[in-house]
Design brief:
alpha+beta, two-stranded antiparallel ribbon, 4 helices, 4 strands, two-stranded parallel sheet, Rossmann fold
Amino acid sequence: MAHVVDEIGYLPVTPGGANLFFQLVNARYEKGAMILTSNRGFAEWGEVFGDAVVATALLDRLLHHAVVIQIEGSSYRMREHAALVPENVRGAAAFNPTPPKRRGRPPTKGKPDPEYG
C-alpha cells in the first residue's frame, strides 16, 4: 500500500511535525511507495520544515528511488473557471497547461519494479 501526502509546504510544519514526518519517511524508506505533492521546490524544504538538516535527510530518502514529475503551468482546478479570471491574467498563458516533465529514473520496460510493483 502506498502512502499519499498532499500539499507539503502549504501550511507551516512545526519542529515536532518535521521530526514526525521524518520518522514516517524513514519507516517507509525502501519498504513501500510514497506519493507526495508540493508546490514548493526542493530548495525551499529547509524553510518549510524549519530545519535544513531534517529537510536534507528527508530528501535523501525520498529521492533515492524516486521518479519526480514536475508539472508546470496553470492550476488544473482553475481551467474550468477561466472565464471568471480577469483578462489580463488569462492573457499571460495562465490557463494553457503544459505537459508534465518526468524526471528521475525511467521506468523499466517489460518488467515491474519488485519494490514498487
